[in-house]
Design brief:
There is one protein chain. Helices cover 49% and strands 4% of the residues. It has seven helices and two strands, in the order H-H-H-H-H-H-E-E-H. 8% of the residues are buried. The chain folds into two domains: 61 residues, 434 Repressor (Amino-terminal Domain); 31 residues, no CATH class. With 98 residues, it is mostly helical.
Length: 98
């Protein structure tokens, strides 16, 4: 489920993931629908392709906000969400080209 979420959020192509895993596009579609189980090697290859770790792929509570780096907050702004969203790791000016 998280692989599918990451592909959609990052607007990646499923066929590119299939190529990275060395499997047919039809097979990756079945894996993303949980019709075929993932091997450990495929899970690691998917994590590498998505530039994340296996633990993130296996996190049952992963949210889109976490993927976008919005789960971290700056100073409290007295709102119900507890603060202002800030970019997560990898969005520092020196890595984003700004």
């Amino acid at each position: 489920m998280n692989v599918n979420l990451m592909i959609n959020v990052r607007r990646l192509q499923k066929k590119d993931l299939a190529k990275a895993l060395g499997i047919a596009p039809q097979t990756i579609s079945k894996k993303l629908r949980s019709e075929i189980t993932w091997t450990i090697n495929e899970t690691q290859a998917a994590a590498d392709f998505l530039h994340t770790d296996v633990a993130t792929l296996l996190n049952p509570n992963l949210t889109t906000a976490e993927l976008l780096g919005m789960n971290k907050t700056a100073a409290s702004d007295d709102s119900e969400d507890g603060g202002l969203p800030v970019a997560g790791h990898g969005f520092e000016p020196w890595t984003s080209g700004l």
